[in-house]
Amino acid sequence: MKSFKYVSPLLILLLLLSCVDTSTNVTEPDPEPDPDPLPGTEALVYFWFFGGDIPNNVELERIDASFPAGNEAFLTFTSALDGYPETDRKGSMERRNAPTDLNYRPQGNGGREYQEGEMRAVQIRAPFTGPNGENTMIFHAPATGFKDLIFSFAAMDEGAAEALVFDYSITGTENWTNAGLSQPVQTLETDAYRLFILDLSEIEEANDNPNLKIRVRFDGPNLEDDNGTRVTFNNIALDGVSLSDSQPTALRITDINNGEAVFAGEPFSMLVQTVGEDGRPVEVDAETTVFLTLATGSGSLSGTLEGVVPVDESTVRIDGLRYDTAEDGVSIEAASGGLASAVSGTFEVEGQTFSVNLSVNPVGAGTVDGAGSYAAGEQVTIKAIPSAGFAFLIWTEGDDGDVFSTEAEHTFEMPERDLAITASFIGEAEAETIVRWTFDDTLEPAEGNGTAQLAGGTETHSLTLGSGWRITNFPEQFTASATAGAEFMASTAGYDAIQVSFGQRASGTMSRWAEFQYTTDGGTSWQRFGDNGGVLSPHDTVADNLLDFEAIPEAADNPGFGLRIVSVFSPVAFNPEEPDEEFAANTAYHRARTEGTGGGAYSGGGNWRLLDVTITGKPR
Description:
The structure is a single chain. The protein is mainly beta and 620 residues long. The strands form nine sheets. Strands 33, 34, 36, 37, 39, 42 and 44 form a seven-stranded antiparallel beta sheet that branches. A hairpin with a 3-residue loop joins strand 36 (459-464) and strand 37. It is elongated and about 120 Å long. The model is unreliable at 1-39 (pLDDT under 50).
């Protein structure tokens, strides 16, 4: 069925009177039919489809009609401003992204059904009057071979004008007139498309006229304002009645796969039309079978290789074609008995791809990366990133949950099938206190179970809540590095992700450097964990420490875990000031007092304070 049928002048008039300003003078048409009708059929004479091929952000002067192929119809624009098109996009005709199905004709766009994503529009921008006159659109539409013409389009105002003004010329010159037009002025709607119909069917001089032009101008207040407003146009058509009985003479291929990519081995479609000698689609009066064969290409064409154009229609879309080879330069021939065959333009068949679809379980537990389409054999990397409080568990595939990978980041070779892969996450347990010492007049833990004791001959100076465990009697200068301090033992059985936190403060003459050691065998042997970076300088300032043992698996779930905090020689060379000489790295203790602030030299009689020593872990 056609999407637009020719309507008699009387019906058009009744339609227009129902929606147009009644103040406009309208001449009642003669209701009697043409006493001597010429043979012919209703036809779309010209169509302007505004698609993505129109350049964006460019001042346009001419747009050719898109239908039929090779026609002589075109639209020109004259700006109200001097110097156009160099007017900084003012008083201009430009592309606009404003699709609509109003007045859309599939016949005028290769038989394609309306697709919003393919359509654009044309806008006329303010100002609408100026030193060069007024913004004007002129449609050059030779009507040779047609009569009873109807000009129509969709348009909307966007704050610029109140009405459109129409006239026409039949002489090929600028001799404009609106004689015989029932509605030379028609009202615009703001921010909504409406259908405009200009009935030329009562103007005999327009019939079969090679010089027909139609002019569109604008009316309303403040047209001279340069305010960025516009009027937008779309789906511009000229319909008429053919002056001859047109018969289909040939086939034409107007579309490959709806403009989408074609992939090797995957089904695609082709749209074929029956057309007359003038290249316009012509309906068939009997079912017409169309056969498809490969015209160019090294592969094989298979699937659905024929289709039928129904009676009183002019198109058939043949679905289910398949081509087995990825290559460029492929074309297809359409043939039907009694009609000239057609060969499509060449197109590319891309390599077959398969999809990787990724999901997360439970929802919100993390994010995934790597979904997409891939060719068989291509290297694919998928990543699972847990959200806070969650840890990656496993990748599974399909409804059966088959294990795909246990690695959060996994690379594999794409198979010849689609994949649906789920990343599963598990909630991480919150860290719990295993043991905590606050040193409130005791070395017994305030929470949990564990022991705290002196190491390397040190002595307790005091135990005070808030001031911590004050330790003194460290080794003399140049002796017993990494042996003296405090030792803490606690079982981590049943816990992972072990961490130890504490505060530490040094007096001015005590070492600024501390080393951290750990045991996993109950204190039989000790391993170096690291040092504090000398952060106990300046003295009498509490440094907060956090030691993370998660990278040491032996520290977890271990009844023999322990930590020592011991004084250590400076790992970097320094000048103690007293004496004023250079001490080499790893040869002497470096006092905590800042250089240049006086005070005594390093002394083992100085002291450290340890505050709020806490060992935590996450339950298994």
